[in-house]
């Protein structure tokens, strides 16, 4: 999800059925109740620390066209949704590049307590110079350096989260002992990128520690995700590519010393479902017609940290220009690979990435039976462990899916009818987190 004026699909705000009260808690609480009724595991929010303003080095077009320009702080949103639900997991994006480990550790540990063990942190390293400028830096860090820094960031956060023993708190009024000081450790971390002393101020949470979400798809990003992630978000254009990606990533998890079955891999998809094929086709045509060319150009500039307004559509990128793309390198490399060109054009980037359209992700469409058939083929065909459902319009995408597709998946025995437990880890089929070996 997005805590903003549109979903992942920037044209979603133009849909006649999209609600416009996204600056109110009721907007997010309605969606949360719908997802909980559909027994979704979790709602998690992507985020950036800047609006798309790299195209022509100006924010004007993005603001004019509503291209993901409203971006609310996620902690307030999760709190509002959490207070309206009892089982739905809730995840938020926080950057390892622009926050401090102690702060992130305390925010998510507190949320996990307040929401009964239902919280996840989507770990990102951020993408572009606009974010750097908003957060007091002149330029965004180089790609691999961001991940090197993020590795140490995760070590510090997990070490703080697990510096209290589960049985540290005694609360014995008669003796006057609140907690055993021998079971609360001070971190005293001094590393290459961070210094953080402690002691941490929040005891271990109901699920041990929050779930970690990650979405790295470059070589270095996949290495990071395989080492740290509990749930990994990916983009795959079709089932064949998803199967290859799934097998490769699970192998990487195993090589990192972890059990591949302990990491969930979930591709992003859109679903357009109707009572009949004709209704679904009409819905899809309306949705596809909401996209504008400016959407793709603004979002490509944002995600690749490069001004796409400076190139003609059929003008090839030079070697130096390609090397200068500092944002999502996995997208750049995918365009080079699929185009078959060492120096692709701007048109190649637009047509292959399909940024700003519903074709950026796989789109399952049709009747409930047809959508369920497509999801079942991926799930049982070794392409995924589940799905991240993005919205074409809000909240109708989720309402249609819960009303029409969830019952069909339940009828087939592919999806649960009740939640499996209380915490997010329970419902993801993950054990309570063991303490991190923070002195290693």
UniProtKB/TrEMBL annotation:
What residues does FMN bind to? 47, 93, 143, 147, 218
Which GO terms label this protein's molecular function in UniProt? Answer: monooxygenase activity; oxidoreductase activity, acting on paired donors, with incorporation or reduction of molecular oxygen
Kindly give the Gene3D superfamilies that the UniProt entry links to this protein.
Luciferase-like domain
The Luciferase-like domain covers 14-383
Taken from the record, one Pfam family name reads Bac_luciferase
- Alphabetic keyword roster: Flavoprotein, FMN, Monooxygenase, Oxidoreductase
InterPro entries (alphabetical):
Diverse_substr_monoxygenases, Luciferase-like_dom, Luciferase-like_sf, NTA_MOA
Task: Name the protein family.
Answer: Belongs to the NtaA/SnaA/DszA monooxygenase family.
Designated name of the protein: FMN-dependent oxidoreductase (Nitrilotriacetate monooxygenase family)
Per the UniProt record, the lineage of the source organism begins with: Bacteria, Pseudomonadati, Pseudomonadota, Alphaproteobacteria, Acetobacterales
């Amino acid at each position: 999800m997005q805590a903003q004026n549109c979903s992942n699909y920037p044209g979603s705000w133009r849909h006649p059925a999209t609600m416009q009260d996204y600056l109110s808690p009721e907007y997010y609480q309605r969606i949360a109740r719908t997802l909980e009724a559909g027994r979704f595991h979790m709602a998690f929010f992507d985020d950036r620390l800047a609006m798309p303003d790299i195209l022509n080095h100006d924010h004007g077009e993005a603001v004019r066209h509503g291209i993901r320009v409203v971006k609310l702080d996620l902690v307030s949103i999760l709190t509002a949704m959490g207070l309206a639900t009892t089982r739905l997991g809730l995840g938020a994006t926080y950057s390892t590049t622009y926050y401090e480990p102690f702060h992130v550790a305390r925010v998510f540990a507190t949320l996990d307590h307040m929401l009964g063990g239902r919280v996840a942190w989507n770990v990102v390293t951020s993408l572009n110079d606009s974010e750097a400028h908003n957060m007091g830096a002149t330029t965004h860090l180089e790609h691999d350096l961001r991940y090197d820094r993020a590795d140490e960031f995760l070590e510090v956060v997990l070490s703080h989260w697990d510096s209290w023993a589960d049985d540290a708190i005694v609360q014995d009024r008669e003796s006057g002992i609140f907690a055993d000081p021998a079971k609360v450790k001070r971190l005293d971390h001094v590393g290459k990128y961070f210094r953080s002393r402690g002691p941490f101020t929040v005891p271990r949470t109901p699920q041990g520690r929050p779930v970690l979400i990650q979405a790295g798809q470059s070589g270095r990003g996949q290495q990071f995700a395989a080492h740290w992630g509990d749930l990994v978000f990916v983009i795959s254009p079709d089932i064949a590519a998803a199967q290859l990606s799934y097998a490769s990533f699970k192998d990487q998890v195993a090589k990192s010393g972890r059990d591949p079955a302990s990491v969930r891999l979930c591709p992003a998809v859109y679903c357009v479902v109707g009572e009949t094929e004709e209704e679904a086709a009409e819905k899809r045509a309306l949705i596809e017609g909401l996209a504008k060319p400016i959407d793709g150009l603004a979002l490509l500039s944002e995600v690749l940290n490069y001004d796409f307004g400076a190139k003609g559509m059929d003008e090839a990128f030079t070697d130096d220009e390609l090397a200068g793309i500092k944002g999502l390198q996995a997208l750049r490399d995918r365009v080079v690979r699929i185009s078959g060109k060492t120096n692709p054009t701007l048109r190649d980037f637009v047509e292959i990435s399909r940024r700003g359209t519903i074709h950026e992700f796989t789109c399952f469409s049709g009747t409930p039976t047809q959508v369920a058939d497509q999801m079942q083929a991926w799930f049982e065909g070794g392409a995924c462990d589940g799905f991240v459902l993005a919205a074409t319009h809000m909240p109708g995408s989720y309402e249609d899916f819960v009303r029409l597709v969830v019952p069909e998946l339940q009828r087939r025995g592919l999806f649960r009818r009740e939640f499996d437990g209380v915490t997010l880890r329970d419902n993801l089929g993950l054990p309570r987190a063991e303490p991190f070996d923070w002195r290693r």
